[in-house]
Each structure stands twice: as C-alpha cells, then as structure tokens.
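This follows on from our talk about sequence and fold. Please put the record directly below this note.
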Amino acid sequence: MSDVCVVGLGYIGLPTASMFATHGLDVVGVDVNQAVVATLNGGDIHIEEPGLKTVVQAAIRSGCLKVVDHPEPADAFIIAVPTPINLDKTADMRYVISATESIVPHLRHGNLVILESTSPPRTTVDLVKPILECSGLQAGQDFLLAYSPERVLPGQILHELVENSRVIGGINCASAEAGRDLYATFVQGEIVLTDATTAEMVKLMENTYRDINIAIANEFARLADRFGVNVWEAIAIANRHPRVKILQPGPGVGGHCISVDPWFFVEAAPDIAQLIHQARLVNDGQPAYVVAKLRERFGDLRGKTFAALGVAYKPDVDDLRESPAVEIVHLLREAGAVVQVFDPYVKQNDNLDGLLVDSVEAAATGAAGLLLLVQHREFLKLDIARLASVMQRPFVFDTRNVLDHQAWQAAGFEVLVLGVASES
C-alpha cells in the first residue's frame, strides 16, 4: 500500500498523516474544517505539539502530504476523528459516521479501512462495517477492515507514535495483518494482532484503569480533609508498601481519553460497569469539590475575584478537552465570582468567554485568591512577592501540591492545599 487517506487532522490524525508521509507514502489528509485546511496549507499548524510543525511542513514540502477537505481514492483509509460524549454521557458518534460515509464513494476492491477513533465496543463491526458495505463491497472479502486505537500522550505524540506498541484488531486475520504491514512503515514498537472488538476494549480498559485509580486518590483526599490528615503525606507512606502505588489527587480528570472512555463502558453495559460509573462520578465531581473548599474559606463567592492559573487539562499543552480547570472557572462564575484566567499555552477559546489575560500578574491583580489548577512549568517559578503586592488578599489554593508552600507563606500568603485540612 503506497497511498493513504487520513480523515481527521486533529491531535492524532495530523501526526499520523505526517508520519506516513515522511516515511515515503503518498498521503491525503482530510479535514472538513476549512480553517484547518487553510492553516496547514499556509505553512502553520492549528494544535500545539512539540516538533509537529517541523514534521508537517517537511511532509507538505516533499509533496507526500496533501491537505484537502474531502477524501480521495487511496489504498488505505484511516479514520481519526473525535468521539466526544453527549451531555447525557453517551458517545457522540456523528463524526465517525460522517467520516465513514465520506469514504464509501471511494472504496475499491482490496482497500484497507482502519478506525483509530476511540469508540464503544463493537463500533467497528456494528457501525462502521455496515456503512462501508453500502458501497456494495463486503468487508473481509472485497475490502479489509480493522481497528487500531491511538495510545499516545500529548506533548510526546511524535515519539510515542513510533516507539509505543500498537494494537491492530481486524474483522478477520487478513485485515489485522494488512494493518500491521501498513503501520510497520514507521512503528518500531511491538505490533500486536487481535480482533476488532478486543482492540476497542483494550483501549477503553487502559484508560478506565487509570480513571479508577485516580478516583480512589481523589476520594482519599476528601477523606483526609474530613479527618484532618495531610493526604500527600499519607499517600507517600502508604506507597512504601511493596504492592501499593496510589496516584496523586487533583482538581479533576480531563482530556479526551481518561475522562471520556469509561463512559463508553457505562453506556454499553450499565448493569455491569457500576464501579466504573462511580469512579467517573468521583472524578467529575472534583471541580465542584474545589469550589466548595473556596466557599468554606470565603463564604459567599459573589463579587469576589479569583485568578485561575492554568486551564489546559494537563501541564505544558494547549489542550482544553474536558479540562476540569475550565469547569472550575465556569462553576465560580455561576457562583457570581469574577475570574481572571492565565494560561501560557492557551491564547483564545470560546469556552473562556473573554476571560483570558496575558500574564500571571494581570490575573492576580485585585484578586482575593490565586488558584493553581495546572502545574505548567512556568507556574513553578513565579515572583511571589510581586503577586502578593497586586492582590487584594494573599491567598493561594494549590490543587496540585506543587508549590513551595514555605516560600509562599514567608511572602505572607495563606496557603490551602487540596487534600490537606489546613496549612497556614
């Protein structure tokens, strides 16, 4: 296979398309967002990821990567579109359906179609396969069909696309083997073959496992607060046990994987996925818990100003998908508070409704409190004395337990730490 069409040029599709192109395949990258197409063809990129701009530009300059707004005939098609969740926590499969339908007119004998989008179990066989067979071709006989989930970490995508193991789940052995041969173009990690539904479940299991373990850490933080214990000290001691590894609590779980994927299990089997469901409720409840702690300290939040430091879902990226920090900002505003937001990686976003300012100092000016919501490297070397001088009240809520609390206290700050009943 020498021609690949990648549908969806987001955090996964764009790096994947570029990786194939820089390894000698002819790639058509497709995105229905005209602004994305124009940005890429203009020599820029629309997402923040170390090293990605250089790789994309090299791929386009070589002529191996073409960016358009509709699929074209190819040997292999890769679907890498989002699968968000609806307000009722069910999977929104509209993008997968639309992308699959867009491939049908171009499907030919011998083609390979691979779904990369994280999806509920049986999506490949029960949703994608029937749509593709509207072409008149039969999956597994006339064309090959597989599922291969992305398993990369934002901030390290280019490295992990190459080095991480890759799971290929085919609707038959020939489909899985064809997927293996295609990804072997650039994947150096182990390529494991299985069936499509197992591959779908593997991806969901990986992120659900992490979600449940984060949930117990968050619940421990709430319990420690109730009992007057420093949860960070307790976790450090508990982790001395050779078979215990408790994760760190925080203001919530974000990103398009851990905070979303477990819901696919809950939707597909609500009678079974009860532990999974409860873990999701705990982690989704952390933003409200953070705001409740502020109410304990300040009483009525109406009219009070807070500086929110960081709104991305994880450190040192611009990704806001399912960010608990954004939810905290919204909850504070619903409570009548004024929120001034600074994130060095986030420039403009409709979800923040004009709340972004251009510096930590601007966010802190006139604030009754600082909220450290994301541990961006930049926030670990702040001018503490300067911030105290521009604030209405020197107060900081460290929801990540990453600040030098003694230094902040020495500068006159009252310090509140998530999972610690009192630290001042």
Notes: The domain at 3-203 is CATH 3.40.50.720 (Rossmann fold).
